[in-house]
Every structure is written in C-alpha cells, then in structure tokens.
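Exercise 7.
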Amino acid sequence: MERKSKPKIAVWKFASCDGCQLSLLDCEDELLTVADAVEIAYFPEATSTQVKGPYDVSLVEGSITTQHDAERIHRVRRASKVLITIGACATAGGIQALRNFKDTKALTALVYANPKYIETLSKSTPIADHVFVDFELRGCPISKTQLLEVIGAYLDGRKPITPRYSVCVECKRRGTPCVMVTQGTPCLGPVTQAGCNALCPAYQRGCFGCFGPAEAPNTRSLAEQWKALGQSPQDLVRAFRTFNAYADAFRKESDVHES
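Solution. The predicted structure, written as tokens, is:
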C-alpha cells in the first residue's frame, strides 16, 4: 500500500532578529507533535536539511529591505501553497521600518564608514506589500500558542481562530485593573490586538503595542486621553512608532502628531 507523504513546511527568514523563529523552536513538546505530522522541509534556523518545494505551508519572518529580498519573496510565494507571515517585521515592517520616516541615505552615511557599499531599499516593508499573504500572525515576538493554532488550522483545512479584539479584553479576563484609570499610566492596550495575555499591564506597565493595531482601533480617541494624562505630541509619536511603526493605523496616528 502506497504511503501518503506528509505535508511540507518551510520557514523563511528575511530582515529580522530571528525571534519569531525561536518562538517556534520554543514550542518544545508541541513542536515534536507537529514534526511527527509534517515534514520540516526547509528551516535553516533548526536544521541543515533542505528539501525542494513546492511547500504546503511557508512561514515567513522578516521584512523586505533590499532588492534581493524583493525578488526572493516572489520565489518563495511561487513555491508555497499557503504563505503565512509571522511577527511584526513580516506584517508591519518591524523596528527597521522606523527608517521609512527619515532619509535612508542620510542614515546610512551616519552609520557606515563606506555607505557606498550598502545596497538597500529606501523603505522596510511588510511581505504583503509584495506578494499575496494567506494569513498574518502578529506579535513581537509571536505567541507560540497562536502559531500552533494557525499551523494546525491550515493543515486541517480550516480557518485559524486568533483574537482580533484589544488587549483590554485580556486585562478584564485576568482581573487586571486598568493602568490608565487607576494609575494614570499611558497604555496602548485599547488599540492593540490581543495575544500577550496583557503581560505588561499585569506588572503595572502600559501596553507597548507589540501585537499591532486591533480591529478598527480608535487611535484618535486614545491619543486625546494620553494628552489628558500630560503626554506631549512627541510622546505620542514615539509610542506609535515602535515594533509596528508602519502598520497603517499606527503610522497614520503618529503622522498626525509629528511636528
């Protein structure tokens, strides 16, 4: 009897810190179960084994920052039945997208002794700006629980179930008092997608927006609340320009407050 082949999974890296790939490796026991059900065909972070495509599922970490990246992501897309972007870099350009607000050539000249040898695009952009993406998994880094859910969903042929509501819902669920109401601490929780189990508010710190904009975020209303707490326009710009600086809602709100 012919043995049915396992689905092939590939993990690709572009401009990133590798943190989201490490989240996959951190799954430990769960990863062993996944590895038993699929063939890890391409994952340089974990193995030197490389199996040619096509791949059933490709996980892509990192943003597009060079012309080589821009060309390579199209090859990845063509070789993948399903392409899932993982992390803030892949879904919103990441920390490196901060350069999108400045003159890249001027920054390069400040950092490198011989900037003429540096070949880079003027902007750091998410994968979806270049190819069709089947699903975006947010976070800096991603939630390993959400990652396993997304992988399992696509292998089972169903739609992934991940939250689109805000971090405030997670605060309510774990019984954490609102840090803005009780302490006057600026917090991005009302406009940030859930996924971290409200980690920072649980330690009396405001949310930093690691998972990017929640569904239909009212950033303007939150900005007004921050102003009432004594935050300056510069504070607002810095708050919205972190891990997900080039996510549409955060980018537009930061532009409003930039002098």
